[in-house]
Each structure stands twice: as C-alpha cells, then as structure tokens.
Amino acid sequence: MDGTLVMAGGALALSAAGIAESWWHNHNLHKIPVRIHVNGTRGKSSVTRLIAAGLRAGGIRTCAKTTGTVPRMIFPDGSEAAVFRPSRANVIEQRRVVRAAARLGAEALVVECMALQPQLQSLCELQLIQSTHGVITNARADHLDVMGPDVRGVAQALSGTVPVGGTMYTAEQRQIPRDVIAAAAKDRGSKMVSILDDSVAEVTWDELAGFSHIEHPDNLALALRICSDLGVDRQTALRGMWAADADPGVMRLYRIADPEREMVFVNGFAANDPESTGHSWNTLFDRYEKVERRIALFNCREDRIDRSLQLADACVRWRPADHYILSGTGTETFARRAIQKGLSKDRLTCAEHQPAARIVELMQGQSGRSSMVMGMGNIAGPGMDLLNYFQHAQDSGRCETREPQLQEAA
Fold first, then answer.
1. Is 241 in a helix, a strand, or coil?
2. Could you tell me the residue ranges of all domains in the chain?
3. Which helix (H) or strand (E) holds 266?
4. Residue 59 C-beta-side C-alpha neighbours within 13 Å
5. DSSP β-ladder status, 262-267 and 80-82
6. Strand duo 34-39 + 133-136: pairing
7. Is-contact 247 279, C-beta < 8 A?
8. Distance between CA atoms of 57 and 71, rounded to whole angstroms?
9. Which Pfam families does the record associate with it (predicted)?
10. Could you give the CA distance from residue 333 to residue 323 in angstroms, rounded to a whole number?
11. CB 400 within 8 Å of CB 254
12. Residue 10 pLDDT class (50, 70, 90 cuts)
C-alpha cells in the first residue's frame, strides 16, 4: 500500500512538473509577438537566415535558429553560437531556443523545423512553436521512405507546420503540392501566400550578386516578401541579408583568374537529389549566360549507383552543358546511361580515380576564356578533395570567393 502511494505521489509530481513546464513555455512563446516556422525540402536554413537578417536590418529585435549543416542559434546582433546537444538531436530543444529568445527580449523568432517524421512536424508547430507565420520553401521528392510515397505525401507531411490562424508562405511552384499546402492552410484558418514565378522574376541578378555565395532567387523572393509584410522595405532587407553570415551548407563559389582564362567553380554537392540539383544547375546556367563555357562535373560513387543513374537520367533534360566531366568511382555507369539517353560521348570526359589537381586541369582544358563549373552528385572522395583544393587556393591568394565580372563569350 505504501509503495502504491509513493508511486502515485511520484506520478502526480511529474504531472505537476509537466504542467508547470508547459505553462512557462507558452508564457515564453507569447512574449515573442512574431514567430516564424520555416520548413521545406530544400533551402530551409538559407531562408531562415535571410528572413532573420532582413528583420534585424529593419530594426526588429530578432533571434533565429537553424538546423542545417551545423545547428546554430543566431542572436539579435547577428552573432551566433553552436546549439549544444548533450546527446542526439531532439525536437524538445526548441523549448530552449524559445526560452533564450524570450530572455533576450526578441520581438521575432525565426526557427527552422528540425523534425522529419510527419507527426513530429505537426507536434513542433502545434506544441513547440505555435507560429504566427509559416514557411514551406518547396516540396520535392526526398525522404520518400518517411514522407512519401510521392511529392503529394511530402507536401502533406510538411504541411504539419502550417500555423493556426496565421499566414502561410510558400515558393513551391507546382500546382499539386501547392494545393496540398493551401488545403492545410484553409483547414487551420491561415491565409495562404504563394510566391510564384512572377515574384521570383522580380529578383535581379544585381540583387543576387550582393551575396558572397550562390543564393537562389526563389529563396530570396520568399524572404523578401515576408520581410515586406512585416514592415521592412526591400532595400533595407537586402542590405541586411547581404551582410549576414551564410549557412555552412550554402552553395559557395570559387573564382580562379589568370591572363588567359577565368573560371568559377560552384560547390553544388549538397543538393544531391535530381530535382534540386537540376533546379540549381538551371539557375546557374541563366546566371552565367555570358561565359564562354558551362561545365557540369558529376562526382560519382560506385556504392551509390542509384544516384548516378537518377542524375544521368535527369541531366539530359536540364539546360545543356558545353561539357560533362565525371569524377570519382563508378563513372562508367553514369556515362553509359547518359549516352543511352541521348548525350553525345564527345561531350563527356571520364576522370575515374583522378586526384583533384588533375580534375581541375581537365576543367581548365574545357574552359575557353571564361567558364562556370558546377560540382554535383556526391561530396565524398574527389568532391571533398576539390573543395579542399579550392580552399587552399583561396588561403594562398590564388582564388577568391566573390561574384566575378566574367568576360563575355566571343
């Protein structure tokens, strides 16, 4: 009997503690008037940083938290620190983020969704963030084992972070996933705002050139619209975004110039699914329309044959590169499939097992007077070696990480 009473007392104590913790969390949440929950397949970390930087520039005291390559807490002065995790990642850490933002007197909190399981995405929104503004950057065919079986399923899972009675933003262009998000917004009583092609087209190359890394125009259009709706004008928001630190996982560019040629190498290894990779390639293709040559570098892995086949199938539907270089291992699989799909073998160079310095020589041999090279596929092996090569070149002053003024093609 005594043991039963002790157990009952312990349960009551735990229940009381849980109620108190929930009360304090809600108290902290409502001390922050603007709460923005950022979700999507690609671009979450970048959009989180862009929105926070734009709001800070507009005089809104803003905290942010990203989950991407390296989880970071970003403070109202723009400084940041790594998020401490005593063990594995757990969505409950969002409570600590909210508590810290409330203590700092934040007027706005921009949080990247850290959940993958659909039910956890909904829990993060309804219990932990309770956003006033929701963001879904896009819904693409990724993590289909968890959120699938198709893009509709991905959109349904991501829609778990739609706010209740707030405003929902998305830069997804396709009708089916956009309709799914709109239905979720209607169900939760939120206003739906779609950033469509006409808004993306308003983003100029000069605005994109203000970044020290490659920023996608749809991400920028999305962030600018949210900042505008919260009272920050476009130029003020842009100045803040240009000055802010980028996420470690962004697409970075490296520029190597000599009297005979100028080459820009873009690290696009992070976007490894075919849809995101193709979107990035087509964006860069248009952005660097004045270069003489545009070169696609695919880093292959023989233990990732499925990815090689998917990229080989997809790349023939993208805007055509002037040349294709295959590095890493298992390149023959990629080459055979791409040729079957219609790619001319004369435009393919296989650099199986070649070191980074040799791959750079092959790039330069295809470059003409000016070129843009995008690295894609897998970062392992030669991919990482190439990044180390360009980082060393930057450290030694042989290359820069700024937007170039490239020579026009003849």
1. helix
2. 27-243, 253-396
3. strand 262-267
4. 3
5. unpaired
6. parallel
7. no
8. 23
9. Mur_ligase_M
10. 18
11. yes
12. low
Output the pLDDT for position 204.
94
DSSP 9-35: HHHHHHHHHHHHHHHHHHHHHTTSSEE
Q: Say if residues 333 and 308 touch (Cβ distance below 8 Å).
A: yes
What is the value of pTM for the model shown?
A: 0.82
- How far, in Å, CA of 161 to CA of 156, rounded? 10
Q: Residue range 107-124: average pLDDT?
A: 94
Sheet with 62-66: strands ordered across: 80-82, 72-74, 62-66, 108-112, 34-39, 133-136, 167-170, 191-194
- Burial of residue 211 (CB within 10 Å: 0-12, 13-18, 19+) is buried
* Fold (CATH) for 27-243: UDP-N-acetylmuramoyl-L-alanine:D-glutamate ligase (3.40.1190)
Cα Rg, the chain, nearest whole Å: 23
Amino acid type, 76: P
Residue recorded with tokens 């709001």: 55
Vertex 215: Cα angle to 209 and 219 (nearest 5): 125
What order do you get walking across the sheet with 370-377 strand by strand?
Answer: 253-257, 262-267, 370-377, 293-300, 323-328, 348-352
Query: From the centroid of its chain, how far is CA 97?
Result: 21
In Å, what is the CA distance from 3 to each residue of 16, 117, 403? 20, 39, 71
Contact indicator for 324, 348 with CB cutoff of 8 Å? yes
Distance CA 180, CA 247 (A): 29
pLDDT tens digit sequence for 220-248: 999 999 999 999 999 999 999 999 998 87
Q: What are the backbone dihedrals phi and psi of residue 148, each rounded to the nearest 5 degrees, phi first?
A: -70, -155
DSSP state of 302: T
Give the count of beta carbons closer than 10 Å to the beta carbon of residue 349.
21
* Alpha helices for 140-244 (secondary structure H): 144-147, 151-158, 175-187, 197-201, 205-209, 217-229, 234-243
- The CATH code that applies to domain 253-396 is 3.90.190.20
Beta-strand pair 262-267/253-257: antiparallel
- Contact criterion met (CB below 8 Å) for 48 and 244: no
Q: Write out pLDDT tens, residues 12-56.
A: 554 655 666 788 899 999 999 999 999 999 899 999 999 999 999
- Cis peptide leading into residue 118 (ω within 30°): no
Whole-Å CA distances, 333 to 301, 313, 328, 339, 386: 10, 11, 12, 10, 22
